[in-house]
Task: inverse folding
């Protein structure tokens, strides 16, 4: 589900930060970090924390720092000396006439350090303390969208139930259609001197296989279970997706059993296709639910 949150924090009078979370729909949890250099430890802790609080979505995590312009900077002599030494060694090895570019050197991560190193050490704890507030804002927005999705899913379940009820009303018409079809076929077989008892057994078996009552009962059960999970809340996205797959299976079986019928029974094909459309639209929404 989609959402956005942003919190600001102050480490000390020389260093402040802005921490942002942005979430969009995704079937799985996909975390993307945009953090300053030399914050690998912070990234690992944020990743672990977010996995505990968020279970689905493409989430972008960004951290920007705001330093006091009057803050003095110190040269990381060890890093700069190592770079210059490696540069000169490479130039000598390949007989190149070149000198190091100071502008390039100073843009290296860690080449310049804050004169107040303790402030950098406090940054991680300050950011981690602000994460809960950002997650609360993000989840509040995601919950608002979730309520809208829930209402839509409940409405679609009502449409499926209505279509199933309509199919049940035409169930007898299907049976009569098959009986008429079988009677015509039996007359042809009887004229071919086939055992009448055997014909009756085959006819009864075919009519039984053509009955869609079991599919309607299972479909109604799945819908009730689906609505029950919505009432429970929590992490139910995968369970809802599974139930929709089962509903789709029942709708396909029902359409398969009623193929080839004519007359009033054709209405079942329309209702079955309407069911499948509602199920597919529900599946699209369920992919966004945790």
Result:
């Amino acid at each position: 589900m989609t959402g956005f949150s942003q919190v600001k924090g102050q480490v000390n009078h020389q260093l402040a930060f802005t921490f942002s979370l942005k979430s969009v729909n995704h079937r799985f949890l996909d975390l993307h970090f945009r953090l300053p250099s030399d914050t690998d430890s912070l990234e690992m802790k944020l990743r672990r924390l977010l996995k505990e609080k968020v279970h689905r979505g493409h989430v972008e995590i960004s951290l920007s720092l705001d330093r006091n312009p009057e803050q003095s900077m110190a040269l990381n002599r060890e890093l700069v000396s190592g770079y210059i030494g490696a540069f000169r060694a490479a130039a000598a090895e390949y007989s190149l006439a070149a000198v190091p570019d100071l502008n390039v050197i100073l843009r290296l991560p860690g080449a310049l350090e804050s004169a107040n190193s303790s402030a950098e050490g406090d940054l991680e704890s300050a950011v981690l303390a602000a994460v809960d507030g950002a997650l609360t804002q993000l989840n509040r927005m995601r919950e608002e969208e979730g309520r809208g999705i829930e209402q839509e899913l409940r409405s679609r379940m009502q449409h499926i139930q209505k279509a199933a009820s309509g199919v049940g009303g035409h169930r007898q018409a299907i049976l009569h259609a098959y009986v008429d079809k079988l009677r015509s076929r039996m007359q042809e077989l009887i004229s071919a001197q086939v055992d009448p008892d055997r014909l009756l057994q085959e006819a009864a078996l075919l009519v039984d296989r053509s009955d869609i009552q079991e599919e309607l009962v299972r479909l109604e059960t799945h819908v009730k279970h689906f609505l029950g999970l919505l009432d429970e809340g929590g992490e139910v996205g995968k369970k809802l997706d599974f139930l929709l797959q089962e509903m789709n299976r029942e709708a396909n079986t029902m359409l398969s059993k009623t193929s080839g019928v004519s007359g009033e029974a054709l209405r079942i094909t329309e209702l079955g296709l309407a069911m499948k459309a509602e199920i597919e639209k529900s599946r699209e929404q369920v992919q966004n639910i945790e």
In short: Strands lie at 3-12, 15-24, 29-34, 57-67, 73-75, 112-114.
